[in-house]
Amino acid sequence: MQLKNIPQLKHIDANNFFLLSGPCAIEGEEMALRIAEKVVSITDKLQIPYIFKGSFKKANRSRIDSFTGIGDEKALKILRKVSETFNIPTVTDIHEVSDAAMAAEYVDVLQIPAFLVRQTDLVVAAAETGKVVNLKKGQFMSPESMKHAALKVTDSGNEQVMITDRGTMFGYQDMIVDFRGIPTMRQYAPTVLDVTHSLQQPNQSSGVTGGRPDMIETIARAGIVNNVDGLFIETHFDPSNAKSDGANMLDLQYLEGLMTRLVEIRKTINSFE
Length: 273
Known about the structure:
The chain has about 270 residues and is an alpha/beta fold. It is built from 8 helices and 13 strands.
């Protein structure tokens, strides 16, 4: 896959990592536009190719009373408005075969959640839309096994596939990132490191996932040093009141400083090659 194949993606010749970033879930139009405006400003300044991320619905929830969305079509229309307002591509995750064609009408990249990446019908449905497909590595899967997930996309006639590592289960309530997997998965497709989900602490007794946002920069730096093609970072201007995954999101006010430091690290790494 080549970045130039993603519609409206800017700064692709800057020799930088690309960024998938936004809120975990679309909570409303104002919040989505507010976050997108800030991230666009930062990424334009630093020449980082940027894709706005927002889930139009959340299906993988710990409790039945967890927030799942504001309505599928309503959220998808907000994603389209973000794209049209800022002239940027967007990505959202899908959970059912019927979601693929519906979401493809509104966004540029379809994301397969980690828990669902072995679901052949879902992966094939995403591939058959012709959109770029982002495969989240299952927390229970080896890097090597992602070759077969990627092949499901390409064997369906779609060469536009990328892989995102979001950590591997370590016991019941923690995640680790095995950086040995980055070069392995880059053999199959461009590889993204999902920094914020890698810092989740799932399966808490409360039914609400915890996290370690204090470690975001540590994991992000390690990803850049190890040549990831892109970073995935969920961000919100008020994480403590976010309706989903607030415990591991980056506060939006810290994003520019983080990106500035990561770009400098990337320049250093580029000078070695």
